[in-house]
Amino acid sequence: MASSPSTSSSSSGSGSVGNLDSALEIKTRSVEQTLIPLVSQITTLINHKDKPKKTERTLRAIQKVGQAVSIAVGRFVTVGEAIAVENEELKEEMGLACFEARRAGDAIAQLTDVVSAEQPELDGRATIFSDKTAMVKAARMLLSSVTKVLVLADRIVIKQIITSRNKVLVTLDQLETVSSFQEFVQIFSHFGNEMVEFAHLTGDRQNDLKDEKKKARMAAARAVLEKCTMMLLTASKTCLRHPDCESARINKDAVFHRMRFALEQVIEIVTDARPGGDAQVLPVNIYSGIKHFKGKVESLRDELYALTPETLHSHLEGIGEQTQDFTDSAYTSHEHRESILQLCHAARQELQQVVCDWTYAQSLKAKEATEEMELSILKTCQTVSELRRELHKAAVGRATDLLKCHKDHIVLKALKGSGGEGNLEAVAEYSHKLTEQKEQLVETCRLLRHISGTEPLEITCIHAEETFQIIGPQIISAAQTLALHPSSKIAKENLDVFCEAWESQLNDMAILLREINDVFEGRRGDKKMYLSLPRPGKHSANLKMAKAAKLDAEEQTTIAKLGLELRLLTSDVDSESEKWEDREHEIVRQGQSLSSMAYSMYLFTRGEGLLKTTLDLFHQAEMFSEEGFQLCSSLQALTSQLEEEEHTVILLETEKLVALCQQLQVTARTAVQGKTAMFQKVDSSIQNTKSIMTVVVYLLPLLNKLIRKYKSELSSLGSPQSWKDKQCPVKEDSLNSKNTNGFGVRALEHHMGSLTFLESK
């Protein structure tokens, strides 16, 4: 972890108070967000204006703030000291940080303890008015020590993740060497609970990380663990049933190896440690290369003498070499290949013209680019941008075609069929075809990586490539096992699980493709998370009866499949919403609100996000149904303005939506007992949510078309009342979302919250 923060004082002013990262690297949003109110308000205290006339009201406010800071810090320190007692390895550091925080809080209370407006320094003590340097020193010490306490507490979170990982590894070793079914069932049940705990701890950490690359790497590693848990179950059972089968052993060994590797990846991310101590360096991609090259060329406008022509030629040649991944591919169309080669050639010619104009400008001793040079710079940048566009079209087109080609999963079905028949020859034939598919998908993922547009998406492309590379051979070994034992139900189940993982990765690839397109078209934005946690007085009876529960590993795998389908529907809603001219239209906003809530439910299926338990999920489902009813009201108001045929279509869909929302609401509010009933309730809630989202996806483009049509007619008739004026007002409450963080040390969070009293000052 980072070193101790500096606590040295400074009399140079308060501007440095808020510069926390320079003294101590803060890697999580929760620590950063916890400190922001304190930084902001302490800075306000220090920067107060020394007015000649100090009123009683001002002095009372300053004194109250100082006392409250001292009390809040005292409570905060008490929690920190309790953590120190429980964690011997941090006792000394935490104790020192707590001591400094308490001392700084007391100093601020004394400095703000002003008596009266007439004689604020009557007893000769130093105050905020007489000794600004002392106030700055106390503030810096407080911020530094509080930050240190928070970061030390964050180490406890990391320790929890490492401890959880170690427990998983121990149980994993036991599972690998188990020799009886009865023993395996007992150990796997324990393993499932440990994996659920690990999933929630790492999910919180993933949400809390500031570094987007680390978040993407964590998401990839957790996705592997999520999918491998079910594979481990069936692969191990198959090995126990058929202990002498070599293909079954190979299949099982590959799963255990991949799980261990993913567990190590998670620990590398949370501890910032990599084998050999080197940070992960991503492969260079064309998108980054073009961006870097354009930056260098454009910098010539202001600085003619900082670069050499050889540097620019070298950069462009590097981009040209990378385009060979496209031009050398057997799957790139002749048209795309020719266009890419022509644009590379054009870019070289344009750069040569830049160099000529640049050299001439230097000969004139010019201080900035000439008009001719400016023109050649623009042409060069335009050409490489066109090259990037052409590469994007080639990669996305290839991926789209491939996904369409494999959407029916013909080869997987053939492998299952021939394996079940015990036809080893047919299994070998279809295994060869699957290997060809795998190679096509792997190469396509490499092309997508080149044009991904962001480092997190590039990491996701690499993860997809690795997944296809690994699961392909695992499907083949599972199919071989079934062919050798065609009557084995467990061997058939095992093959089904690996085939489902392949299908799931294809779904993930479709989502990835949409996100890459969003970046390319400038629509990229972090998906907002909607969380409506229980509020006093609302649905309280239902919530008191319900008990929060967590699903086991097998159930989570089943629910995860539903979640992926739900995620695709949220993307469809977002895509259709983008097509509306009026993005603030009530129906669009309600659709987006439903999409956001559905997205948080999707994250629940992955063990991520802000919905932690089934209780959270059911409350979210209830809020989702209420928002659905609001959308139905808007639709009913709109149908009164439609012609009979259009009115009938929208009315039918609205009635369907009402019925689905009622069904979801009843499901969410129905109390259940027992593990099986709870799982069925989760399954029904997500299934109903999917059905509602399907109707919304159907309605959005239809309504967009109708509203455009009526706007056009109203415009041609010169109607004084526009379509928008006829709409019902938007309910603001339905669109508000709550934001919380994933910081694990809840007690510290709670007591640091005391410091936000300053926000109202």
UniProtKB/TrEMBL annotation:
<dbReference type="Pfam" id="PF01044">
    <property type="entry name" value="Vinculin"/>
</dbReference>
<dbReference type="InterPro" id="IPR006077">
    <property type="entry name" value="Vinculin/catenin"/>
</dbReference>
<dbReference type="GO" id="GO:0007266">
    <property type="term" value="P:Rho protein signal transduction"/>
</dbReference>
<keyword id="KW-0963">Cytoplasm</keyword>
<dbReference type="GO" id="GO:0045296">
    <property type="term" value="F:cadherin binding"/>
</dbReference>
<dbReference type="GO" id="GO:0005737">
    <property type="term" value="C:cytoplasm"/>
</dbReference>
<dbReference type="InterPro" id="IPR030045">
    <property type="entry name" value="CTNNAL1"/>
</dbReference>
<dbReference type="InterPro" id="IPR001033">
    <property type="entry name" value="Alpha_catenin"/>
</dbReference>
<dbReference type="GO" id="GO:0051015">
    <property type="term" value="F:actin filament binding"/>
</dbReference>
<protein>
    <recommendedName>
        <fullName>Alpha-catulin</fullName>
    </recommendedName>
</protein>
<dbReference type="InterPro" id="IPR036723">
    <property type="entry name" value="Alpha-catenin/vinculin-like_sf"/>
</dbReference>
<dbReference type="GO" id="GO:0007155">
    <property type="term" value="P:cell adhesion"/>
</dbReference>
<comment type="similarity">
    <text>Belongs to the vinculin/alpha-catenin family.</text>
</comment>
